[in-house]
Amino acid sequence: xxxxxxxxxxxxxxxxxxxxxxxxxxxxxxxxxxxxxxxxxxxxxxxxxxxxxxxxxxxxxxxxxxxxxxxxxxxxxxxxxxxxxxxxxxxxxxxxxxxxxxxxxxxxxxxxxxxxxxxxxxxxxxxxxxxxxxxxxxxxxxxxxxxxxxxxxxxxxxxxxxxxxxxxxxxxxxxxxxxxxxxxxxxxx
Amino acid sequence: xxxxxxxxxxxxxxxxxxxxxxxxxxxxxxxxxxxxxxxxxxxxxxxxxxxxxxxxxxxxxxxxxxxxxxxxxxxxxxxxxxxxxxxxxxxxxxxxxxxxxxxxxxx
Lengths: 189, 107
Ligand SMILES: [Zn+2]
Fold this sequence. Notes:
The complex is a heterodimer. By secondary structure, chain A is of the alpha+beta class. Chain A folds into two domains: 12-23 and 106-178, 2-Layer Sandwich (Gyrase A, domain 2), CATH 3.30.1360.120; 25-102, Alpha-Beta Plaits (2-Layer Sandwich), CATH 3.30.70.1520. In chain A, strand 10 and strand 11 (158-164) form a beta hairpin. Chain A contains four helices and eleven strands. In chain A, the strands form two sheets. In chain A, strands 1-2-8-11-10-9 form a six-stranded antiparallel β-sheet, with helices on one face. In chain A, strands 4-5-6-3-7 form a five-stranded antiparallel β-sheet, covered by helices on one side. Chain B is an alpha+beta fold. Chain B has one domain (3-99): 2-Layer Sandwich (Folate-binding fold), CATH 3.30.2270.10. Classes of the chains: A alpha+beta, B alpha+beta. The structure holds zinc ion. Zinc ion binds next to loops of chain B. Zinc ion binds at residues 6, 8-9, 11, 58, 61-62, 64 of chain B.
């Protein structure tokens, strides 16, 4: 099997926060009507995670399930488990109308570490990132700079950014510049 | 700055997260229609100064289409509602009448 290559080769910069591309991560797209009982059941059986509510992400062990739309979730898992998990999901869904695809190489995953992540992202997204408005377990598709991204808050000092692979370089450079030392107002510490 | 609440995901979306889809509730002129009716369907739009119904897509968010009722002159938003309807629902019409008593009603 070919060696996994992430979009940015694990690039990282240190500024007001640390911006670092995550190691290869499994990402599975599931499209199906999330309001049907069979879909929630299949996702729970394959991942061990109940379907998240709108704008949320649920995590258990090495997996997470993120709400993308009323008919789409994105499943995160270890890189080497993605193909098997995708097959499990599809099998569990059986005759229920659905699409499951291992999209691990389609997107880039960038980790943001440090208490300033809210202020870095707030420079370029319309999302209200105040601590009371967006916190751990929240997952929001939006835009950053000029491009489509998803923001995932996993802890008070940790967030993740998901973008399409084709714009990963732009997003990484944007984040690195927005995270320049001494460039944050320090409102949300 | 225009903000619309996406009725699908509940996000109060900034205009930069949305893409406009033009006038709402158009009736398609089908194969049996006259050329004039079909041309009207394709090209003629209401473009009012005041109450207007539009289609919008939450393209940078949940990706779904919805409807919005707003005032094109003041940018006041009366409400947003499902894309799966061919006419504005009663609560939206009532919200507009409350704010614009002189409004003549949906076309
Ligand atoms: Zn939405």
